[in-house]
Amino acid sequence: MRRVHGAFALPALCAALALSVVATAQESADQAGARLSADAAVQAALERVRANEPEVLEEQVRFCEIPAPTFHEERRAAAMRTVFESLGLRNVRIDAAGNVIGERPGREPRPAVVMAAHLDTVFPEGTDLTVKREGALLKGAGIGDNCRGLATLIGMIRALAEAPVATQGTITFVANTGEEGLGNSKGVLHLFEAELKGRIDRFVSIDGSGTGFTHVGVGAHRYRVTFKGPGGHSYYAFGNANPIHALGRAMAKIDALEVPKDPRTTFNVGRIGGGTSINSIATEAWMELDMRSHDPAALAAIDQRIHGAVAEAVQEENARWEGRAPVAAAWELLAERLSGVTPAEAPIVRATLSVSQALGLRVPVFPGTTDSNVPMSMGIPAVTIDGGGSGSGGHSPGEVFDSTDSWKGTQRALLLALALAQP
User: Fold this and answer.
1) DSSP label of 39
2) How far, in Å, CA of 148 to CA of 142, rounded?
3) Per the domain annotation, does 248 fall within a domain?
4) Are residues 286 and 173 in the same domain?
5) pTM, whole model, 2 decimals?
């Protein structure tokens, strides 16, 4: 009977111990900001962050003026590799996905923390990347998203080199590729699936300007839908089904769809094209569309409904002309961003709030589609934080970064990295 009793007691005891460990981790995370800020070595590092900010801002401008369209980040990556090496990181390298990686070893390999910022921008080759200065304001394409993230990485590494702070775990700094647009987080996917597979315990992405953070990853499906038909002369072939007309029907049906506000679910037709001339029935027309939600079920539902809307549009266009020379639609998946959530009670979230509060920062929390979606979808603790300062006009040639007190963003990132590199 004692064995049976013990068999029932052991799971309960294990559950109690697990809850105790979780509670202890949460309490430690809640106190991380105050505890670290009181440490003399950490204080010295924070002071170096502030003192170095003018030089860091120069780096922000320098990197911003190096072209880095998605899939063509090589020049910016080479410049970042040089910086990583000059600041004393170990095992600096560029991996198969183009990510720049450098390590700051701790006393032990684990916990293994990755602090990352993406290299790429939404702007194509040939874009004027000149940054203009007006007092505290920096103006230029990509100056906030994500040249600020790169600058924050540099500021952290420089401060740690000048005011050495010991950590239990290793901090790996990464300037990654492929975050924007159709890059589909290719750089971070490569980290988790190949380069650092099984060796990342906690992940932080630094992306853009401000002081907020994200622990809810919004998933996205992006498609190109191509409508095709035989085409013909607008007069003599009149009566052939028209791919452009089918596209128009589909867009109207998509626009009429109702979606939930909670979980927030969205859709957008972002680009359309097709046709050969004003007096020709098109042989082809296409649209590119994006749909998003942080809830996988809601995202799957809107995906299914939009597929249905396109099928109905094709059917109606063909019925309109009684099946004469019909059109058809083909789908191509351009990108899929995985959704995921790091729970609000997770130590990494609580630590982010704790270090932010220790610095007196306002901390807006919002969902987003960032590189942290990848580890979130795998159940690995992850958040995305802003890099400090403030900004406007992201993804436009007129983006503005206000550098007032921007050093506080780097201080926050530094404190968070130190908090996460402890057991």
Assistant:
1) -
2) 9
3) yes
4) no
5) 0.87
